[in-house]
Amino acid sequence: MPANLTPDYLAAEERYKKAASPEEKLEALEAMLSTIPKHKGTEKLQADIKSKLAKQRKQMETKGAGGPARHKEMYTISREGAGRIVLVGAPNTGKSRLFVALTAAPSEVADYPFTTRKPCPGMMPFEDITIQLIDAPAVSTQYMESWVPQIIRHADVALLVVDVSSMDPVRQIREPVAILEERKVRLVPCTESRVGDESGVSIAQIPTILAVSFMDVDGAREMLELLASEAAPPFDVAAVSAASGEGLDGLRRLIFDGLRIDRVFSKQPGKKPSPAPFVLAKGSTVIDFAEKVHRDFVERFEFARVWRRGDEKEGIRVSKDFVLVDGDTVELHV
C-alpha cells in the first residue's frame, strides 16, 4: 500500500533533516507523527518515528539538551476527594483523552507517544462526591520517567488504559504490568488486597481496572473478546470511548466500587440530612462515623438512629458497633 505522505508531513520531515538542536528535532518528529496518514502502508514508518521520538526524549532528559545531566524531578500531589486513581498505560493508548473526558481538566492530547511528561491531576464527579484522577506519563521499555512507579504505588486504584485499535493491545496490557512488577508495584484485580510482603520486600498491590479505549472504531467488539480471553490478570473491564462517551458512566461506577468506600450522611435531630456525605471505608461502624464527625461524639456516644436509602420511617435505633452501608443516614445521640 502506498504511503501517500501529505505536504504537512513532508515539510515536518524536511525540518527534522535540517534541525540544528535537540528541541528542533523533537518538534519535527512530533509533527511528523501527528501528520502522517494512519494506515497499513505507514505502520513501519510510524514505528520508526516513535522509536526516534523515544530516543530523542531520553537524550534530552538525561543530558539536558546537550548540557550536563539534569536533576531528576519528583512530584508530590496533595490528595483530594474520596480517593486517588492513577491512569496507567503504554505510550499512545488514549490515557489523556480519557482523563479529559472523565474530569474536563486540561491535559495535553496528541497522536504521538510520551505526550504526558508530568503528572496531571483532575477531579472526576460521581453522584454526590468527587474522585481524584491523575494522568501519569507512559509506562514503557522505550522510556519511562523514573518517578512514575512511585506515583502509581500511592494510588488507591490504577486505571490501566489500552487502545483496542492498536496493532497489539494484548501487549499494551502485559508490558506495563511486567515493568511495574519489576519495580515492586503489582497491578491486581480489585478483589485482591492492597499491600503484600514477599521475602521481606514490600510489594505494593494496586487494585486495577482495565479501560479498553477507542471502542468507537471498526472491529472493536471482536478485539474486546480477544482481550478478555488472552489478557491476564483478570481485571474488571470497562469498554469506553472518550470521543463518543460510550461506557464512561459504567467506568465511573467501576472506579467507585474499586475504591471500596461508603457514603454516609449526617443528620441532626429534627432536621434534614446534610447534602454532602462523609466517606468511610467499606465495613465501617457507627462509632467510626462518629469519629469522622467529631471526637466529642465518640466520648459521649449513647446511641444512633440509622436510615437506609429509601427508608422514610423514623430510623432504627442502633449501637456503636452497627455496620453501615453506602447511602445510610446517621443521627447521633449523646
Task: Give your account of this protein's structure.
The longest helix is centred in the first third of the chain and has 21 residues. The chain has 3 domains: 57 residues, no CATH class; 176 residues, Rossmann fold; 73 residues, Ubiquitin-like (UB roll) (Roll), CATH 3.10.20.30. The protein has 334 residues and is an alpha/beta fold. The protein has 10 helices and 13 strands. The strands form 2 sheets. Strands 1, 2, 3, 4, 5, 6, 7 and 8 form an 8-stranded mixed beta sheet that branches. The N and C termini lie far apart (78 Å).
When the domains are counted, the total is 3
Global Rg: 24 Å
Our estimate of the beta-strand percent is: 15-25%
The CATH superfamily of the largest domain turns out to be P-loop containing nucleotide triphosphate hydrolases
Named at the architecture level, the CATH assignment of the largest domain is 3-Layer(aba) Sandwich
Query: CATH first level of the largest domain: which class?
Result: Alpha Beta
Number of helices: 10
Structural class: alpha/beta
Distance between the termini: 78 Å
Number of strands: 13
